Amino acid sequence: MSIVIKGGTVLTSAGAITADVLVEGERVAALAAPGGAADEWARGAEKMIDATGKYVLPGGIDAHTHMEMPFGGTFSHDTFETGTTAAAWGGTTTIIDFAVQAKGTTLQSTLDKWHEKADGNCAIDYGFHMIVSDVNDTTLKEMRTCVDAGVNSFKMFMAYPGVFYATDGEILRAMRVSADTGGLVMMHAENGIAIDELAAEALASGHTEPVQHGLTRPPELEGEATSRAITLAKVTGSPLYIVHLSSAHALHAVAGARNDGQNVFAETCPQYLYLSIEDLAKPGFEGAKYVASPPLREKKHQADLWRGLRTNDLSVVSTDHCPFCFAEQKELGRDNFTKIPNGIPGVEHRMDLLHQGVVAGEISLARWVEITSTTPARMFGLYPRKGVIAPGADADIVIYDPGARQTLSARTHHMNVDYSAYEGLEVTGKAETVLSRGRVVVESGAFHVAAGHGRFLERDLCQYLN
Ligand code: URP
Ligand code: ZN
Ligand code: ZN
């Protein structure tokens, strides 16, 4: 199928241009100046999209999602089908999800399991990172085969002792592989040993309510773990990507390492830019909706995170989408905050929430595209197939109406979860039409592809390593 997108403002990480776009089959075929080739293209095209007054941007890439993730005795509530469908509604056309190695199992069997869950069920393209929770000789060898299979980023945890936690020695061993192969270690940087003590103290004093989740995971323990991860990366020569960075403390450590020329990168998430510990402290059990790790911080951290996004010390915004229903799943921790499944839903609204940063003057239009699409593509070896509208790139394209108004709500969202962390929030802008590899996925308020359209992406290595 060939499609002409006419009259829009094409956004890239380098800025905005007025241009018409020709899509042929699954790829972008050409861009042309207005009044140029588009009329001729239109004669042979099967479809014309009038993008006058709209932005035309590369589809969003959410590099941190958890569909059907086992956690705390339950599973995150979006399947690959529902989660990728929700993502597409919001203008995200690629996700990178985490395959989770259970202790005592191999990386290969983990990968097989995640392919079984995802293959044939995704509405948009998808890749995997690997969560390494059992570091041993076999795992370390298998990390190398994973790199060859296009799964070349490995999440490790300094938090959750007894579950995913890795010791400094285990991290160091994995980082040696990463340094050798060009694979990327992704770190959940919170000092889990200290946190568990603080949580035990709180419970022993009868403090069971959701806000305790935040109070027992102070930002200092994120800053400390981030610094430690950076040191281990320096000693081994491994690149390092800090996931879901939430605090000024951790940002300070990342900025220092980057100033020293270390290959250290970091992402933050919309919840840390817009929500705060005040949400966790909502009356009754309402705060459970906002339990995620690292926890929501005091509001004062938000200005630092926006600054980090401008200075590129934070170079990606992902969602850490990990939805647990309030009614049945968050409920598991009603009498004990440590039992509340950790995670906040968000895959559908990342593009819109970050667009509010443009509206508020926190980031430019080009930076919006860069942190939500172009940099994740480069960071995770998908560029220039993804992350840009240019001849030869996959035609993952969003026609975005910057003036549309919408109110975020569980009543209207497509994520398979019974609450919205942003219930009632009015936002400006909306993905109007969404293309994935040249197929119209969302148009005129309707969804047009079956799950199964999405393909697995074997990724190249991180493209920022020097
Ligand atoms: O609370 C969170 N972030 N849940 C998902 C697992 C993780 O640590 O990313
Ligand atoms: Zn994490
Ligand atoms: Zn996560």
Describe the protein in words.
The chain has 466 residues and is α/β, with parallel strands linked by helices. The chain has a domain at 59-379: Metal-dependent hydrolases (TIM Barrel, Alpha-Beta Barrel). 32% of the residues lie in helices and 23% in strands. The chain contains 14 helices and 21 strands. It has helices at 38-44, 80-89, 107-118, 137-148, 168-181, 192-204, 211-215, 219-236, 248-259, 270-274, 277-280, 300-311, 350-359, 365-379; strands at 2-6, 9-12, 15-18, 20-24, 27-32, 47-50, 55-58, 60-65, 70-71, 74-75, 92-100, 125-131, 153-157, 184-188, 240-242, 264-268, 316-317, 397-407, 426-436, 439-443, 446-447. The strands form 4 sheets. The chain has an 8-stranded parallel β-sheet with strand order 8-11-12-13-14-15-16-17. Strands 3-2-7-18-19-20-21 form a 7-stranded mixed β-sheet. A 4-stranded mixed β-sheet has the order 5-4-1-6, covered by helices on one side. Helix 4 (137-148) runs parallel beside helix 5 and helix 5 packs across helix 8. The protein is globular, with a radius of gyration of 21 Å. It starts with a strand and ends in a 19-residue tail after the last strand. The mean pLDDT is 97. The chain binds N-(aminocarbonyl)-beta-alanine and zinc ion (2 copies). One zinc ion (ZN) is lined by residues 188, 243-244.
